[in-house]
Specification:
The chain is of the alpha/beta class. It has a domain at about 130-275 and about 310-470: Alpha-Beta Barrel (TIM Barrel), CATH 3.20.20.70. The protein has 20 helices and 16 strands. The strands form four sheets. It has an eight-stranded parallel beta barrel, surrounded by six helices. Strands 1-4-3-2 form a four-stranded mixed beta sheet. Strands 5-16 form a two-stranded antiparallel ribbon. Helix 10 (about 225-230) links the parallel strand 9 (about 215) and strand 10. The chain is globular and about 75 Å long. The protein starts with 8 loop residues before the first strand and ends with a helix. Flavin mononucleotide binds near residues 401 and 422.
């Protein structure tokens, strides 16, 4: 507590009296805050706060804010003191029938040994996550065409394996921005990690340490940045993803703090001047019914989902001119995340960036943006044609993310010139459905897939995974996937996903 009210004890009854728009106090982690003047500045709208006016808001607050969000955003005099917990009126949490059914599905999860691939985590996550978390993690922009295309694009690339090469031992270790990685993948930034599991992004930090991969810490993590750095093992490499704040002083503070704490790469997100419309998420209406303190408040946008609620600070004015400023405030390598065509890749190269991520934000921004893997083919081709430059190349590294679900996907990207690929949702689904063991299993599955597929490809090391090993001639053929394709439905059995235990399935 940083105000002059340290040590002051306030009764729950007193807090409960401040339950209006005119005087709104809330309790978070046993501390009382006067948020009256902050109501209209809250990025998620005032309505959600008013629902908890005079009450303990910790449970709602935790998954969508870093622990220090409230202390850093409210002036010290608004930190009123500690609450006498014995006198706090509990907000009654009703367990709905839907929630009871969800909990039954959690009990009916198949054992981890039956989870055979990353798709399986998604199938189980859909059954066992809360609706709110599933909506935020799985949603994508508009009709979600780009989201589906991200994975489908990999289906248009085929292998040209080599034979009779000694693959007794295969080694898929590599370097990312000069740092060791046990596989050519990294954990890309995904916000609001606690929606899926109480430990949030720390699940990723710990698994990254165990498996020797690199985690990119998101600006909008549910855990605080320092928690995630403190949670790392000595020497563990972490990157940081940055949403650029309109207030550059805040951005500077975040960047320099990250550098001081040893972060090894700054990934600036450049594809989100405004967050895309993620309708599944918006339908969840974070500011739900039931708040009667401010009936008739027309100023509240009732269509905000988690994404919009947290993102209003992002600067749509970010431009190429800002790059020099970034270089002046940090020595960390700067990588632009969200490059989508060769022209911008060239500018990033010419302006001295250390790399680019060819990404469409997991299909969450511009629908009908092309997949990262398709853009990779274009970018590599143009660099060769116009500049005589080939990849992979130290000094300017190309990364790809979106739709990566198999080691074969990764190997295709590596063959085409990517240094490594980012994986987002599969890791969220893994820990949301099975906690730390889930993410451990996800990385083990990938490792096993790398080992087998490199053998079958005839590539003993990552350096042996070369352009000639893939046929990507069809990559730009955009075929829209027809849901419920008749031929597929009637002639073939669909792929099966992991499912609940038989007895439970019969009951539900
Ligand atoms: C739930 C979720 C939250 C995300 N949050 C961020 C973010 O805060 N910043 C960012 O640059 N990208 C964010 N992304 C995009 C990812 O970094 C990445 O581009 C994308 O997830 C890759 O696609 P994949 O999920 O199919 O692997 C998010 C993606 C998801 C699914």
């Amino acid at each position: 507590m940083s105000g002059g009210n340290e040590g002051k004890m306030i009764s729950g009854k007193t807090v409960a009296e401040h339950n209006t728009r005119e005087s709104c106090w809330i309790i978070v982690h046993g501390k009382v805050y006067d948020v009256t003047e902050f109501l209209d500045d809250h990025p998620g709208g005032s309505k959600i706060i008013l629902k908890y006016a005079g009450k303990d808001a910790t449970e709602e607050y935790d998954p969508i804010h870093p622990p220090d969000a409230i202390t850093t955003n409210l002036p010290p005099e608004k930190h009123l003191g500690a609450v006498d917990q014995s006198s706090v009126e509990r907000v009654e949490v009703k367990i709905t029938d839907a929630e009871k059914e969800r909990l039954a599905r959690v009990d009916a999860r198949p054992p981890l040994s039956e989870i055979l691939n990353l798709h399986d985590f998604e199938a189980i996550a859909k059954l066992v996550m809360t609706e709110k978390a599933w909506a935020y993690y799985s949603s994508a922009a508009d009709d979600e065409i780009t989201n589906r295309e991200n994975h489908i694009a990999y289906h248009r690339i085929w292998f040209r394996p080599r034979i009779m090469r000694d693959v007794t031992r295969v080694d898929f270790t590599t370097k990312i921005l000069g740092h060791d990685s046990s596989m050519p993948i990294y954990m890309t930034a995904t916000a609001l990690g606690k929606l899926g599991h109480p430990d949030g992004e720390l699940n990723l930090t710990r698994a990254a340490a165990k498996h020797g991969v690199i985690q990119m810490i998101p600006t909008l993590a549910s855990c605080s940045f320092d928690e995630l750095v403190d949670g790392a093992k000595p020497g563990q490499v972490q990157f940081m993803q940055l949403y650029v704040n309109k207030d550059r002083a805040i951005t500077k503070r975040i960047v320099q703090h990250a550098e001081e704490r040893g972060v090894k790469g700054l990934f600036i997100t450049v594809d989100a001047p405004q967050l895309g419309r993620r309708e599944k998420d918006m339908r969840q209406k974070f500011d739900d019914e039931g708040a009667n303190v401010q009936k008739g408040d027309a100023s509240v946008d009732r269509n905000q989902g988690a994404a919009r609620a947290i993102s209003s600070f992002i600067d749509p004015g970010l431009s190429w001119k800002d790059l020099d400023w970034f270089k002046s405030i940090t020595k960390m390598p700067i990588i632009l995340k969200g490059v989508q065509c060769w022209e911008d890749a060239f500018i990033a190269y010419d302006q001295g960036c250390a790399g680019i991520v060819l990404s469409n934000h997991g299909g969450r921004q511009l629908d009908f943006a092309r997949s990262g893997i398709e853009v990779l083919v274009e970018v590599v081709e143009k660099f060769k044609e116009k500049r005589g430059i080939t990849f992979p190349r130290p000094g300017f590294e190309i990364f790809v993310d979106g739709g990566v679900r198999r080691a074969t996907d990764v190997l295709k990207a590596v063959a085409l010139g990517a240094t490594a690929v980012g994986i987002g949702r599969p890791f969220l689904y893994a820990y949301s459905s099975y906690g730390p063991e889930g993410i451990d299993q996800a990385l083990t599955i990938l490792r096993d897939e790398f080992e087998m597929n490199m053998r079958l490809l005839g590539a003993p090391t990552i350096k042996d995974v070369v352009p000639d090993m893939v046929d990507a001639r069809s990559i730009s053929t955009h075929v829209v996937a027809v849901p419920g394709d008749r031929l597929y439905d009637s002639n073939y059995d669909s792929m099966q996903s992991a499912t609940l235990k038989a007895a439970a399935k019969a009951k539900l």
